[in-house]
Write a structure and sequence with these properties.
With 472 residues, the chain is α+β, with helices and mostly antiparallel strands. It is 35% helix and 19% strand. It holds the Pfam family RtcB.
């Protein structure tokens, strides 16, 4: 009886030698150690045998539905860059269709899915939901509550910035969610601990807590914006590692960020399950903060709903629809879906409550916000030039003047104590233009608005970083 298979055994069985022999032998010998037959062991090895290499698609093989138009020269440059990266992306062999939203902007080297990109594929592409898995919006209505009181309450219970809450002040997600983390091989190590460390926190960047009044009723509401934080980022890293192993076997010419995990494999099934668990964690994260604010005020929440805009959805056609900064606008996009979704614009503009139109030319998606025409660093350089700042950048007086000008009449707060000028309204595309294009392309219907009172963002938490002080 053979106790262990060698590479020669695989060759004798008609398999072509290659790098795949090592994992194939590991799987085959594991099967033998579990009492399997030689025939069963060889079948286990064959599962690792590379299939035929998949060539990149030719240019223009896949149609890209464009739902964006340039309103000025800056936007024209942005649109051209978005189109270029999408044309490179859709050469990926398993991609079936793609769309561009009105708020689209580049997010990496050519070939990387842009923010405001939608891609339908036969497989799951971790790079197309990015590290900020399930970046999402949640709204809760607080009838009879004063907006300032709600903003004060949220400020007292939320947490922005790097890392999680201090030891001793941590808040646990539900036992059901923690058990799901423990049972999934992508989540049980690393992400599981982070799921506790970073629960009820909001991170940094463009994430926020926004308070305003509903245009239709005058009731006060809270909207939060954040993703899955470090637990999602770790899942993304693991997913990219697995996807790139498949890419090397199946389509080495494919852009690394567009590598995919075949859905029908064990790796694909566990990854899809992990995405749903991360989604549940993120939803709980939103509502934990809302509930803490309600408890602080001894108030009741009358209504609430939420939606992600950085995720992967599977439709009845069997394809996986990747929305990178794109809001689902088709019916029953998730088991907990309502007919309404949330689109923020910037801190000085209303948050839009919309009903999706399931437009075919948008692949069933709508925008997720106002988007950017420039990177944060470029925007900061432009502000510095406008305000006559020297090579050291904007002064505190400059920043105070910009804040006063761009958020006049609003209660704009920064959790770190330092204003992040790269997140002020001028950093984003024209809210009016984005709204006009949503209507022009028929991507969604605006049914209500949340009129701004104030918001909280992380702010420039790196302001006193040693490297910043040294440069100053």
């Amino acid at each position: 009886m053979i106790e262990i298979l060698s590479g020669q055994d695989l060759i004798d069985a008609g398999m072509s030698q290659g790098k795949w022999f090592r994992p194939a032998l590991d799987a085959a010998n594991k099967k033998l150690s579990e009492g399997g037959s030689v025939a069963e062991a060889l079948e286990a090895a064959k599962a690792f045998q590379p299939g035929p290499m998949l060539a990149l698609r030719a240019d223009n093989d896949i149609e890209i539905y464009s739902n964006i138009r340039a309103e000025n020269a800056f936007e024209q440059d942005n649109v051209e860059k978005v189109n270029a990266t999408m044309r490179a992306l859709v050469r990926t062999p398993v991609v079936r269709s793609a769309a561009i939203m009105p708020d689209a902007c580049p997010a990496g080297p050519v070939g990387t899915i842009p923010v405001g990109g939608v891609v339908a594929s036969e497989a799951i592409h971790p790079g197309m939901h990015s590290a900020d898995i399930c970046c999402s919006m949640a709204i809760s209505i607080f009838p009879g509550v004063d907006p300032k009181s709600l903003l004060d309450a949220v400020h007292s219970v939320t947490h922005f910035g790097p890392g999680g809450r201090p030891r001793g002040a941590q808040i646990k997600p539900s036992e059901e969610t923690l058990l799901a983390f423990q049972q999934n091989p992508y989540l049980r190590e690393g992400p599981l601990n982070l799921a506790v460390d970073q629960f009820a926190t909001q991170g940094d960047g463009n994430h926020f807590a926004y308070v305003g009044t509903m245009k239709s009723t005058g009731e006060t509401a809270l909207v939060t914006h954040h993703g899955s934080r470090a637990p999602g980022a770790r899942l993304y890293e693991k997913g990219m590692t697995v996807a790139n192993k498949f890419r090397e076997r199946l389509s080495p010419e494919t852009h690394r960020e567009n590598a995919w995990i075949p859905a029908e494999t064990e790796e694909g099934e566990f990854y899809w399950s992990a995405l749903q668990i991360i989604r549940q964690w993120t939803k709980e994260n939103h509502y934990a903060l809302h509930d803490m604010a309600a408890a602080k005020l001894s108030a009741k929440v009358a209504d609430r709903f939420w939606n992600e805009h950085n995720f992967v959805f599977r439709k009845s056609d069997g394809l996986f629809y990747h929305g990178k900064g794109a809001t689902p606008a088709f019916e029953n996009w998730a088991p907990d879906a309502t007919d309404l979704t949330i689109i923020p614009l910037n801190m000085a503009e209303p948050v839009l409550i919309v009903r999706g139109s399931n437009a075919a030319h948008g692949l069933g998606f709508s925008p997720h916000g106002a988007g950017r025409n420039f990177s944060r660093s470029t925007h900061m350089r432009q502000l510095a030039a406008e305000y006559g700042a020297d090579s050291r950048g904007l002064s505190p007086n400059n920043i105070a003047a910009i804040l006063a000008k761009e958020t006049s009449g609003l209660d704009a707060r920064f959790f770190s104590g330092f204003v992040d000028a790269s997140e002020l309204p001028s950093a984003y595309k024209s809210a009016a233009n984005v709204r006009a294009q949503i209507e022009h392309y028929g991507l969604a219907e605006v049914v209500d608005e949340l009129i701004p009172f104030g918001c909280i963002m992380a702010g420039d938490w790196q302001r006193d970083a040693p490297w910043r002080k040294k440069r100053r």
